[in-house]
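Observation: inputs received (chain + fe (ii) ion).
Thought: call the complex predictor directly.
Action: predict_structure
Action Input:
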Amino acid sequence: MAEQTSSLSEMLPIELRIGNETLDEQHDKLFCRIEALKTAAFGDSGISVIALRECATAFAIHFADEEGLAKAAGIEFLVHRNEHAKALRLFDKALREIERGKLDQHSFLRYIEYWFEHHITEHDKRLASRLTDKASH
Ligand SMILES: [Fe+2]
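Observation:
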């Protein structure tokens, strides 16, 4: 059962909390970042592709942190790492499509959010429970 962490915002719903404080906080910040970009993208001045690239970079940094935690705990991470790598390639492809005018920013932000929710449920929850298991042995 995921524990509540008081510093988390409403952007990270209970169902997506995985019970690892570090990762929940990072996930929360990423959801807040996507939300802020969505709001700005719908605003009059819009957002730059640079802001979207910075968001993709924030994901890359977060993925590296997850990998570091798994490695430090001796947890096998190959499949999970491949999911991260695949996502970064897809984000990059989508960003290039935005630059060429073939994809709109909102679609990208909606996609990234959908991908993230799915990834937390399918991969990060299992990682969190393995980290908890390793910490208690
Ligand atoms: Fe992950």
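Thought: report the result.
Final Answer: The chain has one domain: 22-135. The first helix runs from residue 21 to 42.
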